[in-house]
Amino acid sequence: MVSMAAQLLDELMGRHRNTLPNENSKEPSYHDPDVCKHYTSVFCPHDLFTNTKADLGVCGKVHDDMVREKYQKDASAVTREQFEDDFIRYARQILGEVDKRIVKGKQRLQTQFPEKGSNDREGCEEKVVLLTDKINHLIEEAEKEGCEGNIEQAQGLLKLCDQLKEERDQFRKQLDGTAQNYQGVDPFAQEKQMEICTVCGAFLIIGDAQSRLDDHLQGKMHVGYTRLRSAIDEILEKRESERKEKEVVREKEREEWKKKREDRGNDEEERKKRRVEMEEERSKRDRESVSKRDRSRSRERYDRHSRGYSGGHRSSYGSSRNDYGRYDRGSYRSRSDYDRRDRRSRSRDRRRY
Predict the structure, then answer these.
(1) Angle at 201 (CA atoms; ends 84, 228), nearest 5 degrees
(2) Handedness of CA 196, 201, 204, 210 (dihedral sign)
(3) For the whole model, what pTM was predicted?
(4) What end-to-end distance do the CA atoms of the chain give, in Å?
(5) What is the spatial distance between Cα 289 and Cα 349, in angstroms, rounded to a whole number?
(6) Average pLDDT for residues 187-210, to the nearest whole number?
(7) Are 42 and 87 in contact (CB under 8 A)?
(8) Which of 29, 19, 12 is nearest to 64 (CA)?
(9) Rounded Cα gap, residues 197 and 221, in angstroms
(10) If pLDDT is split at 50, 70 and 90, which confidence band does 208 have?
(11) 194: helix, coil or strand?
């Protein structure tokens, strides 16, 4: 009662009715612990089953429309996911209790109203015939065992025959009783067949009037549980669609990254080709410069030697004439020595480059 009165006062005078005029009232937020997260994100399940058998009572937290609007505008994806997870967890807890009640109701119907095929007269007659055949077969086996001297086995078979006879007598009494009480009318047709609603767990009469079925479908319990199930399905479908959209975006990003990588690979190959071409051009220029330098050096040496011979070149071994008035052979071999040295230097330059 106190919580209901406080809720009414909050609706009439506002949440900050007890604050003084000079005090600054704090604006409510959807992160506050006294704010209902279920009402803020989807809806509060406490509002679905008021004045019914499944009444959850009054919600102990605040339902504020301003906070709900603020949540719809400003809440991040992580906050929305957390609030929705809390709602799904609580809704599944409520639906789990209903599912347990549905299972118990189905078991109750199976015990009270078993299937017609297992209890009708034709089924009983078939069982009587089968039991009679088994009894006759066991009696024949007992007689054979008695003739062979197996008295204990024969007695066991006869005891089994007695049990089967008792069971057959029970089925025959059922058939006789149904014939006497209903005088040819099927007794199972006299009882109303029931079924259980797979949404809210209520018992329904098969073949009932359409107006009563409509009243059931429009009732608070059926509508509330239907709304809970549909809300969970909607949240999960929305998350699945968002996940697929994100997967499509990621696939596009992967394709773009692959294309960029291929372009980079092509650029790298072109760079390698250019680098090879540049190295080949550089080596070619180096070879040309070396050959030019060799030719210039050989010309200079040849000119220097020719100028030395024409200008009276003297040998390093002494003058051109010796003491006996003859020319020294060293002066004549100096030119061939210079030619050999020139060839050796050119061969070294070629090896070097």
Answers:
(1) 15
(2) negative
(3) 0.51
(4) 105
(5) 11
(6) 76
(7) yes
(8) 29
(9) 11
(10) confident
(11) strand
